[in-house]
Amino acid sequence: MKLNKNFKNLKDDYLFAEVSKRVDAYKAEFPSADVISLGIGDVTQPLSMKVTEACKSAATDMSTKSGFRGYGPYDGYPFLKNAVIDYYKARGIDIESDEVFITDGAKNGIGNILDLFSEDNTVLVPDPVYPAYVDANVLHGRKIIYADATAENGFLPMPQKRVKADIIYICSPNNPTGAAYTAVQLKCWVDYALDNGAVIIYDAAYEAFIEDGKAARSIFEVTGARDCAVEICSLSKMAGFTGVRCGWTVIPLASPLNRMWLRRQAIKFNGTSYVVQRMAESALRGGLAECKATVAMYKKNAKTIMKKFDELGIEYTGGVNAPYIWFNCGVDSWAFFDYMLKKARLVCTPGSGFGKNGNGWIRLTSFNSAERTEEAIKRFEPFWKEFKDVRSKLFAPVG
Ligand code: PLP
User: What residues line ligand 1, using a CB cutoff of 6 Å?
Assistant: First the structure.
């Protein structure tokens, strides 16, 4: 038996494990310290009542002779596919039932869709970005190249003619930077993909956080996208489903990937549970207003942070179309993490964990209660003023 040799090329799953390790060490030393985390990438608020009612009612279905379901369709029940179709229709995008594949979350689509592509493709990944794109491709042994996302390009890299890529990941709104592409910008990526025979894997996991009207909510807003793109979405952040697990992938019918993906799912996936699909249906229909209210609450927290950053003159991006605020600390991200934990009992996520361009940057999240976010920001202000005074004395500059 030979093991997958690509495993040795994976970097340790270091970022969040290291954050926890350092926070635990701090708490062990100062057990009474009130530590607030602005580092969490997970939702914190409970499910909507409508979604919970749908869960109970679906569980009851399962306990009756007529309502019981065994294996469901590999690509999801029509009731949920129709809810997804209507969700897109409300934004002026028409998709067909056979183009929607229900999954157990976006991560499933992001990694598993790679089964459809040859290993000698070159993959283009933004830097910084959600680490799963890189890791999933490392496992397959593909060549990975990076599109630099920097303050100069507003953390939204654009295609470059001289760069040749076959598989392109786009994350918009982006984790960790919160930056979101407009349809005009995405059109450049679509044109690039069509010119190069490439595929775009478009991760729209944070689409529900978009509010500025200019940002695209789907790659399928763009002419030509149906000929080169696949869209992956999730109820995780829009409806608090990180623990429930449900999402979807849209693959246009004309693409050979559509039939291949159905076949692939039939081989390796027996579908998302009936109860969860009923909950997801509720989140997209009757429970949508409640889900939107929770997202609005997170967004309000983001505004609390942004307002203070504006007052303090801190360079940042995100927050408007995402639960993430990405700011420049000007020093090694981990050094800043340690210093802020020690001085203000606040936890952040070091930007260097999302790619080399992330060093010198910090990700804060709005996934907390309003009270804790306000308390965090109250602590942050004096901390930042003091940090600015000592920065050049105590730390080497970065970026
Ligand atoms: N895509 C991005 C950009 C994410 O940040 C995350 C989770 O944080 C995911 C996908 C995974 O989402 P899911 O919970 O649907 O698997």
Answer: 41, 105-107, 130, 171, 175, 203, 205, 234, 236, 242, 247
